[in-house]
Amino acid sequence: xxxxxxxxxxxxxxxxxxxxxxxxxxxxxxxxxxxxxxxxxxxxxxxxxxxxxxxxxxxxxxxxxxxxxxxxxxxxxxxxxxxxxxxxxxxxxxxxxxxxxxxxxxxxxxxxxxxxxxxxxxxxxxxxxxxxxxxxxxxxxxxxxxxxxxxxxxxxxxxxxxxxxxxxxxxxxxxxxxxxxxxxxxxxxxxxxxxxxxxxxxx
Length: 203
Fold this sequence. Notes:
single chain; alpha/beta; UDP N-Acetylglucosamine Acyltransferase, domain 1; eight-stranded mixed β-sheet; six-stranded parallel β-sheet; globular
């Protein structure tokens, strides 16, 4: 457990882990309804949402969710030392992770995040040679994903990135720089492939 956390934060993390182990594995509709009823009061703000089995949440009090959010199986939300904001009708696919430790991650309305994606809010510091990288902490940063964005399977969104509204991120892309509105990007690192608006040129 991170030694930079206060005693209260450590106790909360242990309580959240116990809560997940107790209720996180009940399948089907009953499990979805139970998790919504039990988890909702712990979030900073949460509308009606549904979650599959294996939901992992750290830092409930730093997470704001709109209505109609869908968190599929084994989704992870980490916000012990940061904030996550999910707009209305956000969908997060199986085994995806949103990591906002030492960062702010804002996701707009009607965003689709496919399975096995990572939205990473901050990078590890690594500038010093006298101590291990694991003990150098993070470089605080942020990620902004605007409305009506589709992030396909196996994508990585790195710190400091803004993905503008209407963009599409092709499967397997690693996004290292800002994405303009309605752009279709792909590759490692991701580059503009085309635009959704047929009147704009294809690259």
